[in-house]
Amino acid sequence: MNNHNLLKRVLISLKAVKASIRDTAEPSVSEQLDQAICEIQRLIDDEESEKRAHSKALVCLGKVFDKLPSVVALIKLFSG
Asked: Which of 51, 59, 69, 80 is the most exposed place for a label (fewest CB within 10 A)?
């Protein structure tokens, strides 16, 4: 699986997490998810170098994980 497809899978997972917590999450959590979704989408759409895209994607995900300690369990659930 190439990196572009991996970023798409991350985007789908983040959107699923957002949908599953939309009624229960604090506004700051929802905001952080929105920012991460936008950043990952931009990385998919842009033609940045892979190394730079990976770095940005990891920073984005780190911010989400800081806000959502339970997101790891959700991602494990979605990834099967």
From this structure: 80
In angstroms, the Cα distances linking 29 to 10, 16, 33, 35, 36 are 17, 14, 6, 10, 11
pTM: 0.65
End-to-end CA, the chain: 17
Report the distance separating Cα 54 and Cα 45, nearest Å. 14
Name the residue among 50, 41, 38, 60 with its Cα closest to residue 2: 50
Four-point Cα dihedral 29, 33, 34, 40, nearest 10: 160
